[in-house]
Amino acid sequence: xxxxxxxxxxxxxxxxxxxxxxxxxxxxxxxxxxxxxxxxxxxxxxxxxxxxxxxxxxxxxxxxxxxxxxxxxxxxxxxxxxxxxxxxxxxxxxxxxxxxxxxxxxxxxxxxxxxxxxxxxxxxxxxxxxxxxxxxxxxxxxxxxxxxxxxxxxxxxxxxxxxxxxxxxxxxxxxxxxxxxxxxxxxxxxxxxxxxxxxxxxxxxxxxxxxxxxxxxxxxxxxxxxxxxxxxxxxxxxxxxxxxxxxxxxxxxx
Amino acid sequence: xxxxxxxxxxxxxxxxxxxxxxxxxxxxxxxxxxxxxxxxxxxxxxxxxxxxxxxxxxxxxxxxxxxxxxxxxxxxxxxxxxxxxxxxxxxxxxxxxxxxxxxxxxxxxxxxxxxxxxxxxxxxxxxxxxxxxxxxxxxxxxxxxxxxxxxxxxxxxxxxxxxxxxxxxxxxxxxxxxxxxxxxxxxxxxxxxxxxxxxxxxxxxxxxxxxxxxxxxxxxxxxxxxxxxxxxxxxxxxxxxxxxxxxxxxxxxx
Lengths: 254, 254
Hints:
Two copies of one chain form a homodimer.
Chain A: E1 3-7, H1 15-24, E2 30-36, E3 55-61, E4 64-69, H2 73-84, E5 89-96, H3 108-118, E6 123-128, H4 141-154, E7 161-166, E8 175-177, E9 183-186, E10 189-193, E11 199-203, E12 206-209, H5 218-222, E13 227-232, H6 242-250
Parallel strand pairs in A: 1-2, 1-5, 2-4, 5-6, 6-7, 8-13
Antiparallel strand pairs in A: 3-4, 7-13, 9-12, 10-11
Helix pairs in contact in A: 1-4, 2-3
């Protein structure tokens, strides 16, 4: 039976997951949410090897079947496929916190979406720029509904999923299709003394945007009150670099 | 002070890590290995948030400084940058097990390499197709040394890192620069009964190669005794799909 699979990396009890369900609840499709049993932010495409996973049924929410898994976000997708069959659509989110710039690489919510895409399933991740669980998603739901409905109606190009980010401010001025801003993370650890005289290090840091004024990037528009839609291709093979690498590394001309 | 950073996802005591160090030990550069304190396979680009990390100095190996971190492979890179400064080169491996096909998405060793690449550092991951810790890396070292030396001498194109896989058989017929084989994982869970009458699920499965006869792919050559070199671009933005997505999802023409 065809169905929409929903997951995230904030866990089954995140308000953003319920907001995501609300946005697809009236499509007339079966909706199944399989989410981690606690926060799994920044788990990327990690999977659990070497121990068994458990899946637990929860009370339905707004017509959706709800399940919790003691694993990573991608574990949730793999276990859902195994238990309930191949979903027709995979939606991740709504994530509490941004997944713009290169955060797509670290995000567990985008891990869910990338997993769906690699299975050939039209898949979209939705993220809101605030980490607060008190975010009122009401003003963002029309855009989420519109994108989800378009994907359900028309699918996505083969090998491509979407990474949608929504701005702060309780309003969306519009939506633009762009690429991720290039940059990297800096100043990433706070240092603490430990009881035994040693040190420990806690990850923090900020994204250094290499192109803050470039209107082809997601961050540019998010900072100006727009939602960004970035098409993401999980196959990272740099086909255009094959000849150059072959010459440079192997002294070959292929 | 400039240095080569080495890490992996099999942990600091993996023979493959020592083999990797052996391959760069005679270059005249400082070598620092910062690796997880235990196995962290399939950790992808996961990072540790919400708890502190600890780094522990170990005895040197073959001229290399050795450290263990109680975190993910990418944590090791981030903490190395924080503690020792920006490395000039990042090498991952030698991984015990293949990272061909779409395994690059799940691999913690390739997580290390992708992290280095996103910091603008020439980075290469090396993997051997066998998971055995008894693998004799001797016949593979000339190729690893050659690729590492070429990258140290000439760098890599901006935004591109390398994913090198080596075949079984104790011999390498040659090396080819190709793209990753397209495919997905199937039959992924073994089901067990639990003591309380429930079920649990352990991840297994195999890669279904969609193009086994395509000589443009890594798996084709690995199965025939060759090493594969796949250029990898961590920026997954599908720039070529922006117009199509804008029209399809937003009814815009950009």
